[in-house]
Design brief:
mainly alpha, 58 residues, elongated
Length: 58
């Protein structure tokens, strides 16, 4: 078929193609989803004020 003499080489070949297919599926399924890790603007503003205060002390 593909002239692959060893089972382990064939297994590595099939698994690499499978992992590539899973990566494409994962990317397509999460293409336009919002980031859940994004912090609320009020928290970012509070952090920014604290950062400015610390920088002024330096």
């Amino acid at each position: 078929m593909l002239n692959i003499p060893d089972l382990w080489v064939l297994l590595a070949f099939v698994l690499s193609l499978g992992s590539a297919a899973l990566c494409v599926f994962w990317g397509l399924s999460r293409w336009n989803q919002d980031d859940r890790d994004e912090e609320p603007p009020a928290k970012v503003e509070h952090w920014s004020q604290q950062e400015t205060a610390v920088e002024e002390k330096l």
